[in-house]
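Supplementary Methods. Inverse-folding protocol.

Structures were first reduced to a discrete structure-token string of length 264. This string, shown here, constituted the complete conditioning input.
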């Protein structure tokens, strides 16, 4: 596995030499000042619906790689365009009812459904590939392990997700693919990916057995070329990151609301 990120930078598979020292996550609206601020980063993860091709090129001209956000396992209702194409079968049901997350105003979706996967691919085509972005950030993937308890259903969802990854990689081989969480199946997904983000990183938890186990499992993937990112959010986030960097993650501390501009 030689990461597309490393190919961009034309260096060897050593994250310390990758040139990605600073990255930013920002999903809010875009104006001239936002573009200027984001130019300071090596890589930015953005909500692509706020971006034009021209502004993407402005960042790229400054040496910043632009990665577009896509929510895989959830449909946030603000994403009106995707909503127009949804069918009843695209929703994952629990006890015959759609699963709604009030905190995010979103619904849990069924990635096993070919129609739903095609909607995601269409969104990637229109919002990310056609705008010339460098990569794709696959968010809400962790819902598979966090919200699906039945083993058979979870395995089916994992295979549906892997089918999506294979399709994306086949259609858009130049795009960098970053996955958010999804620890239990990262070893299966890694062959399609260039990076992995550990959202909600907390230094103080490094001594916990589960956290140590995940860190250990990621190390051979890192050696194979998977770039590791971590983000700490909310109060006290500015004090986080020392342990993450020690274990080979590019770390970001920021406010928990990604739609609000906030620098470390």
């Amino acid at each position: 596995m030689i990461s597309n990120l490393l190919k961009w930078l034309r260096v060897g598979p050593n994250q310390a030499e990758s040139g990605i020292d600073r990255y930013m996550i920002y999903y809010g609206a875009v104006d001239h000042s936002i573009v200027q601020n984001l130019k300071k980063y090596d890589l930015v993860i953005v909500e692509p619906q706020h971006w034009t091709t021209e502004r993407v090129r402005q960042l790229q001209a400054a040496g910043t790689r632009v990665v577009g956000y896509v929510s895989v396992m959830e449909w946030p209702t603000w994403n009106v365009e995707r909503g127009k194409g949804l069918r009843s079968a695209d929703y994952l049901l629990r006890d015959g009812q759609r699963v709604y997350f009030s905190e995010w105003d979103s619904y849990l979706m069924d990635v096993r459904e070919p129609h739903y996967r095609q909607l995601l691919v269409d969104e990637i085509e229109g919002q990310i590939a056609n705008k010339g972005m460098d990569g794709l950030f696959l968010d809400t993937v962790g819902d598979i392990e966090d919200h699906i308890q039945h083993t058979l259903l979870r395995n089916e969802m994992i295979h549906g997700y892997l089918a999506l990854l294979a399709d994306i990689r086949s259609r858009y081989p130049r795009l960098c693919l970053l996955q958010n969480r999804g620890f239990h199946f990262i070893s299966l997904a890694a062959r399609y990916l260039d990076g992995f983000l550990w959202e909600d990183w907390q230094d103080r938890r490094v001594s916990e057995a589960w956290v140590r186990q995940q860190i250990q499992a990621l190390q051979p993937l890192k050696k194979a070329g998977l770039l590791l990112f971590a983000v700490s959010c909310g109060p006290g986030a500015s004090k986080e990151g020392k342990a993450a960097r020690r274990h080979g993650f590019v770390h970001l501390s920021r406010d928990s609301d990604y739609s609000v501009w906030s620098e470390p």
